[in-house]
Amino acid sequence: MSASATDHDRRDPRWPLLLLITLGSAVRVPQLSHSLFEPHAFRQTQTAFVIREYARHGVDLLTTPLPVFGAGADVPMEMPIFQGTAALIAGLGVSAETAGRILGLVGFQVTCVLLWVLVRRWFDAGTATVSVALMQFLPFGLAWGASSLIDFSSVAFALGMLVCLDSYVRTGRAGQLLLGAGSAWICALVKVTTALPWCVLLLFAFASVRDVRRPLARMGTALALGPGIAVIAAALWTRFADDVKRGQPATHFLTSGELAAWNFGDLARRTSEYSYSGLGFHAFLEVGGPLGVGVVVAAVGALAGLGSRWHRWGLLASAASAPTVFFNLYVVHSYYWIAVFPMFCTLVALSIVKAAGRLSSSASGRARLAALTTGLMIVAAGAAPIGSFEVFQFLRSPSTPELSVRLAAITRPDEQVLVIGCDWDPTLLYGADRSGFMIRNTTPAALPPPGSIPGYSHLVSCDDTLHPDDYLPEGWRAAPTSDPALYTVERIAP
Fold it and tell me: What is the pLDDT of residues 100-144, one digit of tens each?
């Protein structure tokens, strides 16, 4: 190999990307064997429950087995493409939680690669590399990068849509149109809430197009075949899922109409001080820490004179659009912020690269300053209380909940149980590897059918202030056992 070729390879901007992906994957390998009983175990165990049922009984994407409303409960939320794929990985001999984490990590790293491609195209390779470094090593990325969640996979498809449709409008290549449209469809089916901010960013990307022949025709085609069909596909799936859930009284509360206020936030939630405290906590401490410095730096990045202002302002507007529309989801759940995390990292990277350019006139000096500033940002975020908690969560595997262990010890795998006082949180039953019926309250719709009671051997209470007999039909009682939280379900003798 010639000296000039060697020098070219050393300057190849893909090498830093490869190094970051390799290092970021390596530090997450131990996390792949971690249990799911960490913060937001509710959503992770809900996902893993479906994976485990698929692995044991076969994959059928038109059913979503979630045995927390009875052994045969079908509870479709998003189309379970992620869960079905993870079940195939589980079929290779790994646990459901490990399979979910492996697929989650793949989605995270594909997201990083596609983000690098997009940011390099819109700005430069240095900004792209800093964006990926922040994705890999900020505490929020460490906490969620290998989680058993659908979120990063949906972001990967959203970025695939944006990268490919942006390329199609600029080049007219039909292959890019097909890839971008297909990615949009899958993103909307995997998690429709993720699609919104990236579709907003797609509009800003189209607004930045200059010196392209027939851009409006291509934009119209891209929007119609990509987001247009994606919206139709998501609407059809939502209608199908709602019909299934309406057919089971216990799951009627999970239909889209019943969840509208929960998802979007009604007036009371949108004017609540508590809601804005929650938004501030997630935005300024979890994602934008330490102490909101990241948010300030990201805002400066939108003002930096790098690239097109349409791209910079599009990143800011798109990141703001998701919590604005899906208000309550972003108030309550940390993991929903995964959808906008790449946008945040890119804006911070723009600010870092712009500052480095002002402080150094040489390319090597700018690169060193950008690397140093990025490292300091990551260390400062990790040293803050919230950041250190995220890193600590990433480093250790939580133990199975004690009540799950006790439930597994007192029941057989083929026995079903009733659960009260846990809402419909699948964590307890998933940890015990049992199926059952989680009774949310004493309203008729939330109770199991009276005729099904003989199929339940035990009742578990997560709240010792509740009276178990209040949740059983006439003629049945909850008999105490040596464990104060566990009861046997017995028929009352006439």
Answer: 999 999 999 999 999 999 999 999 999 999 999 999 999 999 999
Whole-number Cα distances in Å, 171 to 175, 214, 228, 308, 412: 10, 11, 21, 18, 61
Quote the DSSP letter at residue 433: T
Using DSSP's 3-state secondary structure scheme, residue 415 falls into coil
SS3 content of the chain, % helix, strand, coil (to 5): 70, 5, 25
- Whether the full predicted model's pTM is greater than 0.90, yes or no, is yes
Identify the bridge partners of residue 476 per DSSP, sorted by sequence position. 491
Packing angle, helices 215-223 and 174-190, rounded to 10? 30
Token pair 């195939």 is found at: 88
In DSSP terms, which residues pair with 69 in a beta bridge?
A: 437
Cα separation of 323 and 331, whole Å? 8
Q: Is the model's pLDDT at 1 over the cut of 50?
A: no
pLDDT tens-place string over residues 441-484: 999 999 999 999 999 999 999 999 999 999 999 999 999 999 99
Ramachandran class of 360: left when φ > 0, alpha when ψ lies in -120 to 50, beta otherwise: beta
Place of tokens 């719709």: 445
Q: How many CB atoms lie within 10 A of CB 51?
A: 28
Based on C-alpha coordinates, what's the Rg of the chain? 25
**Enclosing H/E stretch for 363:** helix 363-383
Residue 65, strand partner residues: 74
Quote the CA–CA distance of 35 and 195 in Å, as a whole number. 29
The residues with which 456 forms a beta bridge, in sequence order, are 416
Is residue 7 scored above 80 in pLDDT? Answer: no
How far, in Å, CA of 331 to CA of 417, rounded? 33
Mean pLDDT computed over every residue of the chain: 93
Instruction: Express each pLDDT in 371-383 by its tens digit.
Output: 999 999 999 998 8
N- to C-terminal Cα separation, the chain: 92
Could you give the angle at which helices 41-57 and 96-122 cross, rounded to 10 degrees?
120
